[in-house]
Amino acid sequence: MDVAVFTVCAVMVLSGAFGVLLARNPVHAALFLVQSVFGVAVLFLLLEATFLAAVQVIVYAGAIVILFLFVIMLLGVDRVDDLDVEPIAGQRPLAIVIGAGILGTTLTALLVAVGGPTGAPTANAPLGDAGDNAKRLGEVLFTDYVFAVELTALLLTVAVVGAVVLVRRLRGPLQPLPVEAMASEPESPESTGPDGEDGETGPGGDA
Amino acid sequence: MVIAADPLLLGPIGLEIVLIVLLKVVVSFALLMVSVMLMVWFERKLLGDMQNRIGPDVAGPWGILQTLADGIKLFFKEDLIPENADRPIFKLAPYLSLVPAFLVFAIVPVGGDFRTGDGTVGWFGNRTFLQVADPPMGILLFLALSSVAVYGVMLAGWSSGSKYPLLGSVRASAQMISYEAALGLAIATVFLTGGSLSTHEIVSSQSGWNWNVVTTGVVPFLIFLVAGTAELNRPPFDLVEAEQELVGGFHTEYSSIRFALYFLAEFMNVITMSAIAVTLFLGGPDGPILVEQVAWVWPTLWFSLKVLAFLFTFVWLRATLPRIRYDQLMDLGWKVLIPLALGWFLLIAALNVGRDRGWSPLVVVFASVAVLWAGAAMLRGAVRKARAERLALEFESDEVLDAGDGA
Predict the structure, then answer these.
(1) C-alpha torsion sign, points B14, B19, B20, B21
(2) CB under 8 Å to A25, separation ≥6 — which residues?
(3) Which residue among A181, B35, B100, B104 is least crowded, i.e. fewest CB within 10 A of its CB?
(4) What is the ipTM score, two decimals?
(5) Which residues of B touch A (CB under 8 A)?
(6) How many CB atoms lie within 10 A of CB B121?
(7) Domains and CATH numbers, chain A
(8) SS3 for B12?
(9) Domain spans in chain B, listed from the N-terminal domain onward
(10) What is the pTM of this model?
């Protein structure tokens, strides 16, 4: 039973991963990523990590890939890209080197490791009832690793603030604030006449 | 594999148990389909009443078979796929909406006596829960599946290869993602009081009038209702299919049976969302057993009545409230519901810690409210400062522009 589930999931994860690489359409690639994520979630279930399985779907499928799709749809890049243009010089040879390196490391770990790639069987046995997942994870996160958790939270907040600061850079004449825009609607057509087109690319235009 | 708490699955699993599980699946599937059929009729009839019309009254007694007639009609319509559509995804998308809607119902306990018993019922000599599955991750499955449902909407709009569906689907997915956060935070308060993720445990912790709607304070329940309505894209949050602006929203290009699948998913989501709300906040099948001879009937009856009350509320909202504007929708989600849900979550957490440590609840509430108020005041101050600076800048640039025009 376990082997059968594992095989199906492995095929699902790997075909999804290849799909991401080979799909010519970015939206299709994102969907293959979702397929891969689902396979991993079922693998977590197989390991009785129910909480991680749920979080895998909620976070990766529910938030991250959705945001990918958002960007793809809003920026209108959902067409087949011209592969002859290399956006960053030297990116491809570097990618090949790093990819080969990662593959080599993984293969070495798989082939050389003592007692199987994930360590001794006692180390990957379930710690307790599957229902306790969330509890155990919470206890560990907020006792032993509390500083790491807090720092990560801070890092994410900084990232959000940074993103807003970068995106809200003012260019061109300012657009009126939403509330003021409503209040001053009747008299505004005159004043925005000549520079109207310029005003379109104002704050938030490239958000 | 996953350890199931259901007594049915604890022992050796024989043919009989497999059959019982199959029966549960089939019954819940059929139940859901029939209730969708009745829900569509109920909504149309009730809307008719509220708008001084008659509503459907031709097919069957009181028009009760109208949905069936509509379904058969849709089934035999021509199935169109637009030329610009991305065909495989166009075909896939309706199922991504429908399947999560079905699966969520699997974790809802629809009956079982939680007051005197442990919520199990006897079926053919076996004790079992009256729910298809009770996974340890419980209600997280609901959150996971509702985030999968976003794909159905999003891909439908994109794969149609047409403007209005794309706009509708971008609106819809932005709305669903935004409100999922508030929804999750409201559910998190239930975890704190119930102490478990499993729906069975959540329901049994509420038995005997100990309903979460009271024990979490009414606020998370209200947040859940508002966020749930938005998550369902029901009025007054139905900007997704604002007819005046978007033709029909994300499913404009869908016809025939594929459209019927979206229709089905939408109404099924209304029912499952009501069932989840009842499970989380209103004690699920909890209620008094009035006649001992048919004791097994009462929990299911109470559950159905509670769900019906929610369904009525959804129709009532649709008949009463005008659609809100998109910026109001986003303001409500991000600036009101999420901070409120988060603050309330922290308050409940502080009260729980205080109870463990033996602190006075009054002091805890006072201190928490003070801290939250200070945080909110800082945020408000920052927003006001930013706004003032922005206005000053705007004033300045206006002057520069005026000078430029004059010169």
Answers:
(1) positive
(2) A78, A79, A80, B86
(3) A181
(4) 0.80
(5) 1-3, 5, 86, 89, 135-137, 140-141, 143-144, 147-148, 150-151, 154-155, 158, 166, 170, 173-174, 177, 180, 196-198, 327, 387, 390-391, 393-394, 397, 401, 405
(6) 16
(7) 1-80 (1.20.120.1200), 145-183+197-207 (no CATH)
(8) coil
(9) 7-324
(10) 0.81
